[in-house]
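Good morning,

Attaching, inline, the backbone tokens for the sequence recovery test we're adding to the shared suite. The designed sequence is right after.
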């Protein structure tokens, strides 16, 4: 697939996320009408891996509504969020202002982040939880991250495990509740077209641009892209919990997140790399 075709599909995704934003703002899933608790989106191991953030320059790529970005600011970081959706960035700015958080938000495609941020360098680049699947070219992404980090800076990716993305979220007609492999684990087969009439949150149907495109990226592809770009992988964790119950038979754990009763399989991973 050509870069021009990639750009066309990413523009479709951008329009889709613009259309999703008002649905997400009003959803119970995000709960923005309640007291904002951005740390509920973080697994405890994330803070262990990230370490002290006070006084650090932290960039959150593909930040959507910027709730996690606010958590970094509350821990003393100079926080910047970047997203390609104009509607999302506008909403993120309003949410931060209402919460009193000092966060800068920038609207740009990830691949244009270096130019959009005027060459600014960061101590930490954070991304994840449903972000990488919207990027067609991981090599280009990894090279962009390398350019955004100052020497010694760290990238932290916390993403849904590719095994999770391979499992069907609900049974097809005539099937039982067993989790079945429905999608590729490995990338390379091209984008998956989805009709995003309804998103992962509650709320009404999306109005307007409902087409979206996702790319599968296996763990090997992610690690290889980062090492080829000159980043050194320092830690890789696999976790069996999610911040919301994707399947009805998931049970709540002591952390407040959700896990499958059995078997235990990886649902999330955390990857720490350094320049």
């Amino acid at each position: 697939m050509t870069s021009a075709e990639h750009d066309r599909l990413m523009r479709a995704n951008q329009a889709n996320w613009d259309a999703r934003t008002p649905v997400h703002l009003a959803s119970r899933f995000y709960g923005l009408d309640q007291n904002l608790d951005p740390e509920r989106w973080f697994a405890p191991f994330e803070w262990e891996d990230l370490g002290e953030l006070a006084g650090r320059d932290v960039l959150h790529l593909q930040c959507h509504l910027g709730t996690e970005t606010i958590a970094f600011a509350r821990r003393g970081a100079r926080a910047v969020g970047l997203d390609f959706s104009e509607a999302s960035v506008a909403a993120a700015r309003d949410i931060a202002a209402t919460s009193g958080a000092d966060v800068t938000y920038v609207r740009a495609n990830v691949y244009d982040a270096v130019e959009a941020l005027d060459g600014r360098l960061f101590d930490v680049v954070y991304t994840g939880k449903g972000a990488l699947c919207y990027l067609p070219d991981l090599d280009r992404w990894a090279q962009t991250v390398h350019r955004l980090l100052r020497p010694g800076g760290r990238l932290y990716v916390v993403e849904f495990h590719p095994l999770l993305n391979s499992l069907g979220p609900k049974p097809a007609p005539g099937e039982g509740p067993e989790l079945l492999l429905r999608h590729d684990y490995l990338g390379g087969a091209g984008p998956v077209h989805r009709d995003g009439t309804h998103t992962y949150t509650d709320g009404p149907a999306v109005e307007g641009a409902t087409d979206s495109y996702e790319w599968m990226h296996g763990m090997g592809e992610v690690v290889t892209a980062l090492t080829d770009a000159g980043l050194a992988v320092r830690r890789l964790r696999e976790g069996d919990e999610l911040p919301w119950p994707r399947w009805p038979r998931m049970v709540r754990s002591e952390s407040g997140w959700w896990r499958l009763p059995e078997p235990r399989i990886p649902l999330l991973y955390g990857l720490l790399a350094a320049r």
